[in-house]
Design brief:
9 helices; mainly alpha; about 260 residues
Length: about 260
């Protein structure tokens, strides 16, 4: 008993030191993320006019009233909108650094294979997010805005608040960017072994419902055509995810087959 107490005390001290090391590591990586976000936001604020112009261009091209001009009705509206846009754009610029810091923080607790999967996931995640943003901006947004701006045409002239259209565009671009991460996430989960293609195939019927519910949430209209513009890509992305999960399963079986025993 006398010898057991010093050993127990030493083990507790080692655990406390390990926890403190993890906390210091977390604090360091959070600080790097915050600095990257601040730098990205500062750079974006220098170009906030160009960013806002890019965001509102689809609405400006469709707007027929007031000479195609956007309006603001509060003294601080344009300033707060500029700050919000700069912060969001700064987050986009800092996102690769933030994602890398997250991966490196959890990497020590992973196997070598899982580390390779996560590091390979980084460029794919960025590319998928960019594809989702491009799809939302060039394919989904024009018909949705056309429906909204031409509904009840002749009854009233559309005078669009700049904060309203900016918030709408940021919401659409952000969520569609995340939606396009679905196949990569399914592939990563299949590689880790949490899911497989068979389980994902059985969930397909429920995913149809999920896709149209998400389409109703993401799109700003009740128009079924615009909702289908979100739901159909979701269904296609899910099928792509099943295909990638099937490839992941085959790759794991091939690796196990050539691994020498003993």
């Amino acid at each position: 008993m006398t010898l057991g107490r010093p050993l127990l005390r030493t083990e507790m001290n080692n655990r406390e030191q390990t926890i403190l090391q993890h906390l210091r590591e977390l604090r360091r990586r959070v600080a790097i993320c915050v600095v990257a976000l601040l730098i990205g936001s500062a750079v974006s604020f220098a170009f906030f006019e160009q960013i806002i112009e890019w965001l509102v261009r689809p609405a400006r091209d469709l707007q027929t009233g007031a000479g195609g001009q956007l309006v603001y009705t509060e003294v601080t509206e344009l300033l707060t909108t500029s700050i919000k846009v700069s912060f969001v754009a700064g987050f986009v610029l800092a996102f690769p650094i933030i994602l890398y810091q997250i991966i490196m923080f959890v990497a020590p607790g992973l196997t070598g294979r899982e580390k390779r999967y996560l590091l390979g996931f980084l460029p794919g995640a960025l590319l998928a997010f960019a594809c989702g943003v491009g799809f939302a901006y060039f394919v989904m947004t024009p018909p949705a805005l056309h429906f909204l701006l031409t509904f009840g045409e002749g009854v009233a002239v559309p005078l669009i608040k700049v904060s309203n259209i900016v918030n709408l565009m940021i919401r659409l671009l952000f969520w569609m960017g995340l939606v396009f991460e679905t196949p990569l996430l399914m592939y990563l989960l299949a590689q880790i072994g949490l899911v497989d293609a068979r389980k994902l195939s059985r969930f397909r019927r429920y995913w149809v419902v999920v896709a149209f519910v998400m389409g109703a949430i993401i799109t700003p209209t009740f128009d079924p055509i615009n909702q289908a513009l979100v739901a159909v890509p979701l269904l296609v992305l899910y099928e792509l995810g099943i295909l990638l999960a099937r490839l992941a399963g085959r790759g794991k079986r091939s690796t196990n087959a050539i691994t020498p025993v003993g």
